[in-house]
Amino acid sequence: MIQITQFRNKCIGCNACVEAAPYRWAISRKDGKCTLVGAKSVKEIYTINVPDLEWEDNLKAAEACPVKIIHIKKL
Ligand code: SF4
């Protein structure tokens, strides 16, 4: 299992995470920021636990994020 965290309020809507893992990230039509699909939030911090097979794609997303608001770790 891995855990993905996004500090959404600092998202600039650049789409880099969507390109890396399109099943897990989507740009919101409401505010132009990216949504971590399926995640729960506490204030503007979104978190989800997902299977290990998502590691590579979401690591790429985290590395590509220009404002470094995507964090990923193994549980
Ligand atoms: S890569 Fe980062 S800044 Fe760009 S849309 Fe995704 S979360 Fe937002």
Descriptive report:
It is a single chain. The chain is an alpha+beta fold and 75 residues long. The chain has a single domain, classed as Alpha-Beta Plaits (2-Layer Sandwich), CATH 3.30.70.20. The protein has two helices and six strands, in the order βαββββαβ. The termini are close together. The mean pLDDT is 98. The structure holds iron/sulfur cluster (SF4).
Topology:
Blueprint: E1 2-7, H1 16-20, E2 25-27, E3 34-36, E4 40-42, E5 45-50, H2 55-64, E6 70-74
Antiparallel strand pairs: 1-5, 1-6, 2-3, 4-5
Bound molecules: iron/sulfur cluster (SF4).
Could you give a short description of this structure?
The protein is of the alpha+beta class and 75 residues long. Helix content is 20%, strand content 35%. The model has no long low-confidence stretch (mean pLDDT 98).
